[in-house]
Write a sequence for this structure.
């Protein structure tokens, strides 16, 4: 049999046969004087086994390991591992379907699929054309993708009920072209700190925090104007100090 004939017999392509040769799964037969490979029935049986193992979900490296064990012991072991992996995939799919069911129970926000808790928060947010408010929504979606906590989102709900929050966003928008030493920075940072719900303090690291955010924080702040970034830095420092004082006060309580 030539390569096209053995490929058709087993139900694979000639390209697949050549790939199996390259991977060392199927020994390459000697060529005749005319340059053509001639395959035997034994080659077809081995090729059929490679196809069956591949259809079970084994990688070609795993197929090679199975074929190397004539006793078949490794085949049973690999198939057991494959079954366990499929069971894990089934559980992941069930989890994804549960999440999709939760997402479809209520209208999705414009930002797309997010956790149900964040979706409720975004739907409750007042309509505004504030650029900084839009950035806050984007950051919340990013946090959600990274695994943001439900308690954090729930703690933000009081802000939605504060009529002064939109005016704070407007003041932030006014700093879009301002320098870090703008005199409006300090008062605005104090005003923002004052409206932060106390429950959010649990999400703030202890201590004052670094003067310049690192990693993701630095990338986020680079998207702000110097004045807006300075406001954010001052607020984070203030919340860090509040968290530290709160922790110290709690640790210093006498046992009842």
């Amino acid at each position: 049999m030539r390569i096209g004939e053995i490929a058709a017999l087993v139900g694979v392509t000639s390209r697949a046969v050549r790939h199996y040769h390259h991977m060392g799964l199927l020994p390459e037969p000697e060529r005749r004087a005319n340059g053509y490979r001639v395959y035997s029935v034994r080659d077809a049986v081995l090729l059929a086994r490679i196809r069956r193992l591949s259809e079970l979900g084994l990688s070609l490296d795993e197929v090679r390991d199975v074929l190397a064990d004539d006793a078949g012991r490794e085949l049973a072991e690999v198939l057991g591992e494959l079954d366990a992996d499929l069971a894990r995939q089934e559980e992941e799919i069930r989890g994804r379907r549960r999440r999709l069911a939760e997402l479809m129970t209520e209208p999705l926000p414009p930002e797309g699929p997010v956790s149900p808790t964040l979706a409720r928060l975004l739907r409750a947010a007042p309509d505004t054309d504030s650029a900084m408010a839009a950035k806050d929504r984007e950051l919340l979606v990013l946090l959600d993708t990274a695994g943001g906590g439900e308690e954090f989102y729930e703690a933000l709900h009081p802000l939605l009920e504060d009529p002064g929050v939109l005016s704070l966003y407007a003041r932030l928008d006014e700093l879009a072209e301002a320098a870090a030493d703008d005199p409006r920075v300090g008062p605005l940072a104090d005003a923002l700190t004052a409206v932060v719900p106390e429950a959010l303090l649990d999400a703030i690291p202890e201590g004052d925090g670094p003067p310049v955010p690192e990693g993701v924080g630095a990338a986020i702040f680079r998207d702000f104007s110097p004045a807006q970034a300075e406001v954010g830095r001052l607020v984070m420092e203030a919340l860090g100090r509040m968290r530290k004082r709160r922790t110290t006060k709690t640790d210093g309580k006498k046992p009842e």
